[in-house]
Amino acid sequence: MAVATEKTTIVATKHPQETPYQLDPEHTLKASRALLQHIQTETKRIQQASSKKSLLNASTSDSDDDVTADAEAPIWLTLTTKQHIVDKNRLKPSKIHVPHSLNTSPDLRICLITTDPQRAVKNVVADPAFPEPLKSRIHRVIGLTKLKARYKTYEQLRELHSEHDVFLADDRIITRLPQTLGKVFYKGTTKRPIPIMIADTRKEKTEKSKKSKTDGASAPISPASLAKEIEKALDSVPVSLRPGTLVAVRVGLAAFKPEQLVENITTVVSRLIEKHVVKGWKNVRGVHIKGEQSFAVPLWLADDLWADSGDVLEAPEENGKLEEAEEQDEHGSKRKRNPATSKGPQAGSRKRARVDDGKNGKSTLDHEVAQERKRKLASQKAKVFGDTL
Q1: C-alpha to C-alpha distances, 367 to 21, 210, 372, nearest whole angstrom
Q2: Going by C-beta distance under 8 Å and a sequence separation of 6 or more, which residues neighbour residue 112?
Q3: How far apart are CA 114 and CA 226, in angstroms?
Q4: Is residue 345 pLDDT above 80, yes or no?
Q5: End-to-end CA distance of the chain
Q6: Under a CB-based contact definition with an 8 Å cutoff, are residues 311 and 273 in contact?
Q7: Minimal CA–CA distance to 248: which of 94, 79, 85, 103?
Q8: Strands 74-81, 166-170: parallel, antiparallel or unpaired by DSSP?
Q9: From CA 379, how far away is CA 371, in angstroms rounded?
Q10: How far apart are the C-alpha atoms of 326 and 334, rounded to whole Å?
Q11: 275 or 212, greater pLDDT
Q12: Which of 7, 21, 229, 335 could anchor a disulfide with 281, C-beta 3.0 to 4.6 Å?
């Protein structure tokens, strides 16, 4: 019996110690279940309200479209920090692989933006070795030069933006696209081009040694490698960083189950803090999830409002003495006031009369003691805050 007790004690000591810098799985599951249930309830309420207003039976197809659109409504994760995440806008988004992809629809429309010439990439996509299910979802392959020539106006860019669901771009030209696509794509973060590797790195190094200056000189990778890169991008969520203390990432859809949403949230939070947040969890202020038209549900909130203890300044000794003097002063006011003026607390004739009359059993001696304390307090304030008082 003694041996069994000893083994039980040893196993108990091997459990990891609890730390406040982590998500609570049970709380995350409850919050995810509550948010999804709220979104479903609101969707049903809106559909019932719209069906009562509709007078034609032919509108049933429109309601079916609304159901599918609501099922694809995104769930956002917002992470706020105590200090700025980045100092400048990063137009090249990073990717975080999630267990449950947000792009599983067979009707997904993909636009692939490549370097010149675009014909080399088109040949790779048209190759028989390229997976057919993925090929059917790639609706357009366009080079950078033709993109600039065909889509010049704001209306043309909006049309391109609405025709496709996901935009993938060669990582060699991803930093040139903001100037070409403009605020139609980069005002929000939903359809910003996601970088993928298209060029064969081995051939690219060989051609760089030959001092080739053209963008399309490096040959694209094999059909299987390109398909793997595209699938990897579709199974990930993009993270776009901007100056500030907030970052928002899509972590799920309204059609997800709570368990699926929890797995994506846990993965995104851990990778986001590890990869992008300086000082890790100590710099995180709060983690929330929300729908498109719902309130933010808190998952984790920090107890401290500072990242380091060095950011908190200790009060000087004179300030401590000043606070003690204010606490001991029963008749004076704690408000800062210039003694030379007649404005502020205990300045009016009515208030002076109350003190002089000795209301509430206060004697004249107590009043003189209070006045002396007020003078000492004023001198201490003058030393601490300067001549402004």
Answers
A1: 54, 95, 9
A2: 121, 125, 138, 140, 141, 142, 168, 169, 230
A3: 12
A4: no
A5: 76
A6: no
A7: 79
A8: unpaired
A9: 13
A10: 6
A11: 275
A12: 21
**Topology alike, domains 20-50+60-79+243-312 and 104-234:** no
Beta-sheet strands, E only, within the chain: 74-81, 94-97, 110-114, 138-143, 166-170, 194-196, 236-239, 246-253, 284-290, 297-301
Place of tokens 């999830």: 289
Tokens 């997800």 locate to: 256
Is the pTM for the entire model greater than 0.85? Answer: no
Residues 6+ apart with CB under 8 A from 48: none
The length of the chain, given as a count of residues? 389
Q: List the structure tokens of 162.
A: 């609405």
Burial (CB < 10 A; 0-12, 13-18, 19+), residue 48, is exposed
Kindly give, in sequence order, each residue whose CB lies less than 8 Å from that of residue 270, ignoring residues fewer than 6 positions away: none
pLDDT of 227 higher than 60:
yes
What are the phi and psi torsion angles at 158 (to 5°)? Answer: -65, -35
Q: Domain 20-50+60-79+243-312: give its CATH architecture.
A: 2-Layer Sandwich (3.30)
pLDDT at 308: 64
Q: Rounded to the nearest 10 degrees, what angle do helices 258-275 and 25-53 cross at?
A: 120
Task: Print burial letters for 349-364: b (CB count within 10 Å at least 16), e (below 16).
Answer: eeeeeebeeeeeebee
Give domain limits for the chain.
20-50+60-79+243-312, 104-234, 317-385
Cα(343)–Cα(7) distance, rounded to whole angstroms?
Answer: 75
Burial class (CB in 10 A: 0-12, 13-18, 19+), 167: buried
> Could you write out the DSSP letters of every residue in 162-183?
HH-SEEEEETTTTTTHHHHHTH
